[in-house]
Amino acid sequence: MSSMASSYKPEQARVPSALPLPSPPLTKFNIGLCQLSVTGDKKRNISHAKNAIEEAASKGAKLVLLPEIWNSPYSNDSFPVYAEDIDAGGDASPSTAMLSEVSKRLKITIIGGSIPERFGDRLYNTCCVFGTDGELKAKHRKIHLFDIDIPGKITFMESKTLTAGETPTIVDTEVGRIGIGICYDIRFQELAMIYAARGAHLLCYPGAFNMTTGPLHWELLQRARATDNQLYVATCSPARDSGAGYTAWGHSTLVGPFGEVLATTEHEEAIIIGEIDYSVLEQRRTSLPLNKQRRGDLYQLVDVQRLDSK
Ligand SMILES: O=C(O)CCC(=O)C(=O)O
């Protein structure tokens, strides 16, 4: 009897093997997760975020993560009103101008949560990464839009106003190689696997889960992404405002490469400081050598971008 396996040859594998982990300038440092309250007052949101970043840095954070949509209420009505032209910069993007100024002044890396971005006649849900020199190092546009309908619980259709991003985003910073996703992006393991295969130390997901999926899925997904890919995962949510149109779950968290929760909080405003130590990645990967044990002869994930760049 012929078997499928006999015609399936390992040399047909098209996926490049996992890249080795790079050595960033800092391999042990504190991350600050700023779980911020968000109001309808954009100026206040920007100065509030600035104060929180300064506080996180004063507590020793070299990397600061902000929530999803921190300069605007989370609603399809608000996105067009609060959107900024990030590429134009300056007055056209006061939120990213602030992030650039603070990262340079405090010499820290900032994963700037996300804000609504205007690009021509399109709107995106976009995360900007600033390096210690205040330069914009990467821009991630949410790839998987949050379109869900759980009858009697929650219906939200980001696609009413937003366009999906088209590229995974992985960025080299002073504090490691970081893969970026925004909220719903965390549900797609393939994205996290590709980041891991490209040598990411840490995945950062600004997010705003809700009162239905938050209790069941938020921590589970973070721990799953960290455990499966043997890397750090950090998330940051807005603080909960029960009077707002969209009620965020909160619970911003740092998870280690063994799936362990290293730092977390409840739903109120908070600045959470957690320690990241990349030497732990090698230890975990040596003890549990999943990368060596993976059966690339039987299944493969194709990283289209890495193949295209060859
Ligand atoms: O996946 C979920 O349950 C929540 C996702 C979400 O709130 C978002 O993508 O903004």
Describe this structure in a few short sentences:
InterPro entries: C-N_Hydrolase, C-N_Hydrolase_sf, Nit1/2_C-N_Hydrolase. It holds the Pfam family CN_hydrolase. The chain is an alpha/beta fold and 310 residues long.
Highlighted features:
alpha/beta, Nitrilase/N-carbamoyl-D-aminoacid amidohydrolase, seven-stranded mixed β-sheet, disordered N terminus, binds 2-oxoglutaric acid, omega-amidase activity
Describe the protein's architecture and organization.
The protein has eight helices and 15 strands. It has 310 residues and is of the alpha/beta class. It has one domain: Nitrilase/N-carbamoyl-D-aminoacid amidohydrolase (4-Layer Sandwich), CATH 3.60.110. Strands 1, 2, 3, 4, 5, 6 and 15 form a seven-stranded mixed beta sheet that branches. The longest helix is centred in the N-terminal third of the chain and has 17 residues, at 42-58. It is globular and about 50 Å long. Residues 1-20 are annotated as: Disordered. InterPro entries: C-N_Hydrolase (IPR003010), C-N_Hydrolase_sf (IPR036526), Nit1/2_C-N_Hydrolase (IPR045254). This is CN hydrolase domain-containing protein.
State the major sheet: 7 strands, mixed
Cα separation of the termini: 39 Å
Topology pattern, helix = H, strand = E? EHEHHEEEEEEEEHEHEEEEHHH
| Ligands (ions, cofactors included) | 2-oxoglutaric acid
CATH class: Alpha Beta
Write the topology of this structure.
Elements: E1 28-35, H1 42-58, E2 61-65, H2 78-82, H3 94-106, E3 109-111, E4 115-119, E5 122-130, E6 136-141, E7 147-150, E8 154-157, E9 169-173, E10 176-180, H4 189-197, E11 202-206, H5 213-229, E12 232-236, E13 253-255, E14 261-264, E15 270-277, H6 279-287, H7 290-293, H8 304-308
Parallel strand pairs: 1-2, 2-3, 10-11, 11-12
Antiparallel strand pairs: 1-15, 3-5, 4-5, 5-6, 7-8, 9-10, 12-13, 13-14
Helix pairs in contact: 1-3
Bound molecules: 2-oxoglutaric acid.
